[in-house]
Structure formats: C-alpha cells, structure tokens
Amino acid sequence: MADPHAVTSLAALEALYGPAVERSLQKVRRDIDAPSRDFIRASPFCVLSTRGADGRLHGTPRGDAPGFVAVLSPTELALPDRRGNNRLDALRDILADPQVALLFLIPGVGETLRVGGMADITTDPALRAALAQQGQMPATVLRIRVEEVFFQCARALLRSRLWGETPRPAGVPTAGAFMNSALNGAFDAEEYDRTGPARLAANLY
Q1: Which end of the chain, N or C, is more open, meaning fewer C-beta atoms within 10 Å of its C-beta?
Q2: Residue 87: domain span
Q3: pLDDT tens across 133-164, in order?
Q4: What total number of domains does the chain contain?
Q5: How far is the C-alpha of 80 from the C-alpha of 133, rounded, in Å?
C-alpha cells in the first residue's frame, strides 16, 4: 500500500525544512584549498561511493596511514587500490560511470570532508611506486578530477559519539579555517570556532 505521507516533490521537501543555511552554500569549492589539503593529508580513512552500470550504488571503505590519498594538485587526487578480495565493485562501477564521491574522516575530529569528481583507473608505474607501502605497489590507482569540495559540520559525529573520548589531533583544520578559506579571509575563524561547541549543542536536534 502506498504511503499517504510520502514526500514526492521538491516543493514539499523544501516546505518541511525551509531554506538552506547560507554558510552551507558558501563553503562549497571547486578545488582543494589549503584546509582541505591538510585535512586529506591527516585522514587515514575515507568512504568511496560509486554507481554501476545497473544503477546500483556502492560505498566502500578505503584506509591506510594518514595521507594515503595523495593530493596531486588543487584539482586532482590519487587513491591507491590496496589488496582486497578482488570483488572490484568500485572499480567495475567506475568503468561504467566515472562519477565518484569521497567522505574523509579523522579519528577524534567531528568535521568530515566531502569530495566529488570524476575518476579514471591507471596503472601509471611512477604513481604506483610513489604510493607503495611496505614494498607493495597498488595494482591500480584512481586519479580523481575534483569537481566539488566542502566540509561537513560535526553534528552527525557528535550525535553518534563515534569517537568517544578520542582527543582531536593537533593541526587538523577547524570549521572556522574552512569557512575563512571559502570566503577568502573575510571571516572570523577564531570566533566561529570559539562559539562552535555551544552552537552545535543547541542545534543537535
């Protein structure tokens, strides 16, 4: 039986939530800025999202030592494919549809970083050698052309208490640093970070 409460139009959806917070729109970039670069270099884990020829979606974990995803330029990332079970779900998907999304996480950090773009699979010997670990080169590397980058606030991780009492690592860019970069320095990052915990606590639910 059809759900009589189903939301089936964009107008109905927007009426339930209201307009987007302006800062959530301002923070979107088309390149890897300095805070995004530093966040990626500090991240030991990301989720790679892909879509196959049959329309099925996959979200696969990728992890290694912090910085395992290399920032080749402000518009390109390199993600090594480490040893696995050879299902190759994500790689098969990319052959059919090169659109990908990455979600970077850092233990102890509430913010996450979202990156969207287009991926190619390469066996470039120099790139594989540069991304080798413990004497083992990845069989392939994803070269990802960046099209969209933005940080996600800490609400989801605060609600889930995912990191427990894990302390925030030193040097990881803050939400204020991301916003300051997005607005070309015309933003009070220190004040934003100082008031952040109370602001988030007041708006978790």
Answers
A1: N
A2: 24-202
A3: 999 999 999 999 999 999 999 999 999 999 99
A4: 1
A5: 10
